[in-house]
Amino acid sequence: MKRVLVITGGSRGIGAATARLGAANGYAVCVNYRHNEAAALAVTEEITRGGGEAIAVAADVGSEADVVRLFEQVDEMLGPVTALVNNAGILETQMRVEHMDAARLSRVLTANVVGSFLCAREAIRRMSTRHGGRGGAIVNVSSIASRLGAPNEYVDYAAAKGAIDSFTVGLAKEVASEGIRVNAVRPGVIYTEIHASGGEPGRVERVKASVPMQRGGQADEVARAILWLLSDEASYSTGALLDVTGGR
Ligand code: NAP
């Protein structure tokens, strides 16, 4: 069976590392992105240069129409999805809760939570034995913020990731008898560009002393955990939340 991996937000950071490693592990890869086409094409071109199969598809995971089109394009260009990584995520400028307005909360919850639900829905319609599919695996990219709460920075983002943890546990039980495993990784502080969107590009350097291993993590270190959870090596794991945090 051809293995087809869809990674939302696969153009940069943890998603891009997962796309490269997925291709190296034999998956045909769809790199989804929102705006940064050049970054997405750099990932797919690197994969195809190395002999792999990859496409880049622009879609905002918070838009239902975009998500439906994303999976239809994957059907046409690669074949039905067998593995989904719900990685696309955003955070906004650091602030306390009393300064957050409804527009911000809606953006954060839509991109992080609604997007993961919509993509999982499209994947389940194709993977579930209940719908004539042949099974598959989903990994949600949560955050250790769901346990720590991100006070004074982005409690809204932490709460969204808390929702992703509950989503992982519930969905895993819902589809466990239909050939689909659903797990999550919860990264700690990882060197990517996401911290700049919170207004603190050097955040990893500031907080790394609070990490028991005394360092930030690399995107590849998260990607390896994701690929393991997707693989048959994790055949009896579902509903698991795997912390990749250097002990935090
Ligand atoms: P990043 O470097 O900022 O990359 C974010 C990726 O998501 C980009 O490919 C971006 O696409 C895409 N994206 C954002 N919003 C999107 C949307 N609405 N629809 C489709 N794609 C969208 O982020 P990262 O640090 O790799 O984070 C990846 C995941 O890990 C996120 O879920 C994040 O919450 C989680 N995480 C990160 C850390 C960390 O320390 N870095 C820690 C814990 C959890 P464009 O390039 O087109 O903008």
From TrEMBL:
Annotated Ketoreductase domain residues: 3-193
SMART domains in the record: PKS_KR
Top-level taxon of origin: Bacteria
Keyword flag Mitochondrion: no
UniProt key word Magnesium: no
InterPro entries hit by this protein: KR_dom, NAD(P)-bd_dom_sf, Sc_DH/Rdtase_CS, SDR_fam
Annotated keywords: Oxidoreductase
NCBIfam families: PRK06123.1 (NF004777)
Family indicated by similarity: Belongs to the short-chain dehydrogenases/reductases (SDR) family.
Descriptive protein name: SDR family oxidoreductase
Organism name: Billgrantia antri
